[in-house]
Specification:
Layout: E1 5-16, E2 19-30, E3 34-38, H1 45-52, E4 60-65, E5 68-69, E6 78-81, H2 93-103, H3 108-121, H4 137-149, E7 155-159, H5 167-182, E8 187-192, H6 195-201, E9 204-209, E10 212-217, H7 219-225, E11 230-236, H8 242-249, E12 257-261, E13 264-269, H9 272-285, E14 290-297, H10 300-308
Parallel strand pairs: 3-8, 3-9, 6-7, 7-8
Antiparallel strand pairs: 1-2, 1-4, 4-5, 9-10, 11-13, 11-14, 12-13
Helix pairs in contact: 2-3
Length: 314
Amino acid sequence: MMDEFIIEANNLSKSFGDFVAVDNLNLKIKKGEVFGFLGPNGAGKTTSIKMMVGLLRPTSGQILIDGTEIRHADKLKIGICPQDIVLWESLTCKESLKFMGEMYEVPNDILKTRVESLLEDLMLMDKANTLVSNLSGGMKRRLNLAMALIHSPEIVVLDEPSEGLDPQSRRVLWNFIRSLRDKEGKTVILTTHLMDEADGLSDRIAIIDHGKLMRLDTPKNLKKEIGEGDIVEIHLFDSKMNQKLISRLKTLENIDSVIEVDGIINVRALNAVGKLPEIMSEVQNMNIEIADLSLHPNTLEDVFIELTGTRLRE
């Protein structure tokens, strides 16, 4: 069905002088899904989002919102919660939401109910009459999100929503994002560099690096793509020995890959625990000292490493 997709980006590019921030991006976002943009800062996530919601004009390419070219699309369908908190410090939480709702011309009776509902859902009800200047950072970020939702947009854009949040605020936020999709059928677009956030919330994830789309799939399929194994990370005291050990480990049977990432050796194997004695035997035979060794199941970070050869850094 044509109307299954609420946003379509076709051959989208954006350059700032000689710097290419987004390079020929093609993707479609489905109605009612949480769509994650995953990549390091500077990868082109925010630039892509800004173009897709009409805040930034692309150098080339086309964006469709509900099948309509973005210049002619209804911008009220979109609510944007930016990475930088934008609030009026001298207003209370309730006043902030009421003021924003009036700007969007939300009818008074609907606005009153919506203000109460958002304060309740984002655990700000007991701060309803508190000045914004007296809120904690986590509360400010939650209020910022409430303000982006006051006009009940179909598309909710969250740019690094967990930035600087404490674990409790993050849990509140994640549950709320799920409810936007599950209870209200909204489309949520999420940019993040947090692996657990992308994995836990997204129905599908676009992995972006250097302005290019590397992969687009469900978290489950992405993790399956590079083998449902385990990763052994070996940190040697003398990193000059890394390549020698890598060469030796590559000769072992049933090892999927051995690569060096940021000075640490990554060994991927289906039954890594069972392979540990063999790996340790090779280390001892070469008289190499290990500074640290860890083992974990395959994660989105490992997918990213496999695609780019580097960790997902801030």
